[in-house]
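Per your request, structure below.
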């Protein structure tokens, strides 16, 4: 019962949780029924929790039921035929069907009804056998029936009202199948009173067990809700720590963390790790002519374009500093990384962000430096950054708005 909860069972709307915390989640003073959909959720929770337990219990019960035919023969000998008929022809097929049903997931919505039916049917068959055996052994069957009912009401994890129904059926069966015949009137009266008292005690025990189970269920709801809130808060805090507030992409801190992880992974698996260093061309002139607010907007647009372009699983676009961006591209060699850099250049130009003071275009452009290598014991992640930075410097020196590959990196 401590396993992770199914969201279909535990994802209760906030207003429902608020009502629960205020104590308004029970629909009666006995606190044995929840309000609205919560009751259905609780029933599904109990069915999933108990199905395997009930299925194993029914298998054990069926085995004992079959085995007790030996005692029928031992006690009755020549008069055993009618009792065995009730046990094996009338009772066994139904109980076997119940056992099979409890092993199917489709039975979960009806598990409580199946348990009540199984206990009631077992009670009926046992009392029927008690009614047709000789009086000298009748007490043994009556005693065994009382034990069956008491165990059935307490170990099958019935809810309170289900135990009331099963107990009521047992008492009615006692009156119907064991009517006083004049010779054993006092014994049968005593047995009925004993059965009434034992059934009442068992039902009272189930009342406490049902309330405790419901209280535990509500505690699980509240714990799960708080865990969800903490998870959302942690994600929000992680976003505040790892995301650059201006551009909306990863910041330098998160870039360093991911680069370290990807470097270790690429070294362990022996594949290429590529890096692109990107710089907005003549950004200082852009700020001087249009102002810093417009410059911030330009950074945002460029960052989002980079993010949309490098979107494979594992790719990371980060703001490296100022108007400079870094892109991590796992499992790309030099040729593929250079092509990716060219696509990025083209996409930034396609944004057509006006740049009145650019010396290479009327729109905002970027320069891209590319480096790629297979990490080994002779290289480090700082080498990869340095190679990409050198390639970026080469791109700027070559007229900007272009892509340059650092061909000195090891293949």
């Amino acid at each position: 019962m401590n396993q992770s909860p199914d969201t279909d069972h535990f994802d209760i709307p906030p207003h429902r949780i608020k009502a629960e915390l205020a104590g308004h989640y029970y629909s009666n003073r006995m606190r044995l029924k929840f309000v609205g959909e919560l009751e259905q959720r609780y029933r599904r929770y109990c069915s999933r929790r108990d199905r395997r337990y009930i299925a194993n219990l029914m298998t054990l019960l069926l085995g004992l039921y079959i085995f007790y035919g030996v005692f029928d023969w031992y006690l009755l000998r020549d008069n055993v035929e009618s009792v065995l008929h009730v046990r094996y022809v009338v009772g066994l097929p139904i109980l076997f069907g119940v056992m099979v049903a409890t092993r199917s997931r489709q039975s979960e919505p009806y598990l409580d009804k199946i348990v009540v039916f199984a206990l009631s049917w077992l009670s009926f068959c046992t009392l029927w056998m008690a009614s047709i055996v000789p009086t000298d052994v009748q007490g043994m069957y009556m005693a065994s029936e009382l034990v069956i009912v008491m165990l059935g009401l307490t170990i099958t994890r019935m809810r309170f009202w289900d135990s009331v129904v099963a107990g009521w059926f047992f008492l009615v069966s006692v009156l119907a199948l064991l009517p006083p015949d004049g010779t054993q009137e006092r014994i049968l009266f005593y047995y009925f009173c004993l059965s009434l008292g034992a059934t009442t005690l068992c039902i009272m025990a189930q009342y406490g067990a049902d309330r405790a189970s419901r209280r535990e269920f509500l505690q699980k709801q509240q714990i799960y809700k708080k865990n969800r809130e903490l998870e959302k808060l942690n994600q929000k805090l992680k976003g505040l720590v790892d995301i650059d507030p201006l551009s909306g992409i990863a910041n330098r801190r998160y870039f360093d963390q991911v680069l370290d992880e990807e470097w270790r992974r690429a070294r362990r698996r022996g594949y290429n790790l590529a890096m692109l260093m990107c710089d907005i061309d003549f950004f200082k002139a852009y700020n001087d002519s249009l102002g810093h607010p417009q410059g911030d907007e330009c950074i945002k647009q460029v960052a989002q374009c980079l993010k949309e372009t490098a979107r494979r699983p594992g790719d990371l676009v980060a703001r490296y500093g100022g108007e400079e961006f870094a892109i991590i591209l796992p499992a790309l060699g030099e040729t593929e990384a250079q092509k990716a850099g060219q696509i990025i250049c083209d996409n930034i130009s396609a944004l057509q962000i006006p740049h009145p003071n650019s010396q290479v275009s009327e729109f905002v452009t970027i320069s891209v430096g590319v480096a790629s290598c297979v990490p080994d014991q002779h290289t480090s992640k700082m080498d990869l950054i340095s190679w990409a930075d050198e390639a970026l410097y080469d791109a700027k020196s070559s007229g900007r708005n272009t892509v340059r590959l650092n061909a000195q990196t090891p293949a």
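The CA atoms of residues 273 and 356 lie 37 Å apart.

Regards,
D.
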